[in-house]
Design a protein that fits this description.
The protein is α/β, with parallel strands linked by helices. It is 51% helix and 10% strand. The structure holds prephenic acid. Keywords: Transferase.
């Protein structure tokens, strides 16, 4: 699959003057709940009304969705509000039902994207459809697996495609429910700049009061749209209560978000930008130079360890460095998360260098 301008035709054809917005409850609960939320979202930037009909849950015994009956409610949403509809599909049976009930857009969840078998089954069931199909990132930060899933759909003749960035599971706890790993989304855009990319701040944050900031970051990184879980009574939602926002909050988010231009040709922007970029180039060169020098010192320690038969990994020394650097970093306005990530990468490279010397 190659990047082509045609990949974004379905989105361009919508002629929106704002990012694409997909909103609605995490789960369809009752007909009244679905219709009430849909009516509250009717006069907003929302183009697609979402509701989970089949809910993949981590553990059994939780609410797993209302199933097929919810598709009738989505049809009513379309008839009564004019909004298009969408839901998640996770197997061929879901696809068949969703197509039969004329759902306009289907997405594939993170737990399905991880499995090439499931992706192929869904691709085969969707073969040739002109519905829009969006693929969430797999739970693990694996760009090739994400793109591979999309490719399976493309190969099955599905041309109205896009991706949803919903963040990644990690072993380490962080302030996010699923860490965004923005770098991966940036790499995604570098490979497929014209494939519409939607952000899902609800699953990234897991908390409604963090949703706005993640939306803003996504727009700053040129995302094409947002999928935001919305419920008139989020606290009492049957699933994901902490991360849903009310329809009014969603409308406010859309007012407050600053949509920026991709670039600017005016001299008042280009001139100072070029000057600042020249400064960045100088600093980047210095960084590389310093890192090279640091590795030369690590090589010398590696030789010493080889001669004296000492282990490469020296945890006490390493933790000392990390602690000092986090403190130094914070005095220079660098976040702990960044300093740790950067020094872990440096340590890794240092170990690779010393291993080469010891085993070379
Ligand atoms: O201090 C050492 O023993 C080193 O080899 C240097 C270094 C580093 O890169 O700072 C590398 C590996 C060790 O685990 C600890 C620190």
């Amino acid at each position: 699959m190659e990047n082509t301008k045609e990949l974004r035709t379905w989105l361009d054809d919508m002629k929106l003057n704002h990012p694409l917005v997909i909103a609605g409850p995490c789960s369809a609960e009752t007909e009244e709940q679905v219709l009430k939320i849909a009516h509250e979202l009717k006069d907003s930037d929302v183009s697609y009304f979402r509701a989970g009909i089949w809910k993949p849950r981590t553990r059994p015994g939780m609410f797993e969705g209302v199933g097929e009956i919810g598709l009738h409610w989505l049809k009513k949403v379309k008839e009564e509000t004019g909004m298009k509809t969408c839901t998640e599909v996770a197997n061929a049976a879901h696809v068949k039902l969703a197509l039969e009930h004329d759902v306009d857009l289907l997405w594939i969840g993170a737990r399905s994207t991880v499995s090439p078998f499931i992706m192929q089954e869904i691709a085969d069931a969707l073969a040739g459809t002109d519905k829009i199909v969006l693929v969430k990132n797999p739970v693990n930060p694996d760009l090739a697996l994400w793109l591979g899933g999309i490719e399976r759909l493309y190969t099955a003749g599905i041309k109205n495609l896009g991706a949803i960035h919903r963040g990644f599971s990690t072993y380490e706890k962080s302030k996010y429910r699923n860490t965004p790993e923005w770098q991966l989304a940036i790499e995604f855009q570098n490979k497929f700049p014209d494939l519409p990319l939607i952000n899902d701040p609800s699953h990234i944050t897991g908390k409604r009061d963090m949703v706005f900031d993640v939306c803003q970051t996504a727009l700053d990184l040129n995302f094409d749209g947002l999928m935001i879980e919305t419920h008139y009574d989020p606290e009492n939602a049957w699933s994901d209560a902490a991360q849903q926002v009310t329809p009014d909050a969603l409308k406010q988010i859309m007012v407050d978000l600053k949509v920026k231009k991709e670039t600017e040709t005016a001299v008042s922007y280009r001139e100072p930008l070029e000057n600042l970029r020249a400064q960045i180039n100088v600093v980047d060169d210095q960084l590389i130079d310093l890192l090279g020098k640091r590795m030369q010192v690590a090589d010398k320690i590696g030789q010493l360890k080889k001669d004296q038969n000492v282990a490469v990994l020296q945890s006490r020394r390493w933790n000392e460095i990390l602690g000092n650097m986090v403190m130094e970093g914070s005095s220079k306005g660098l976040s702990e998360e960044f300093v740790l990530k950067m020094f872990k990468a440096i340590h890794q490279e240092s170990i690779v260098h010393q291993e080469k010397i010891i085993n070379g």
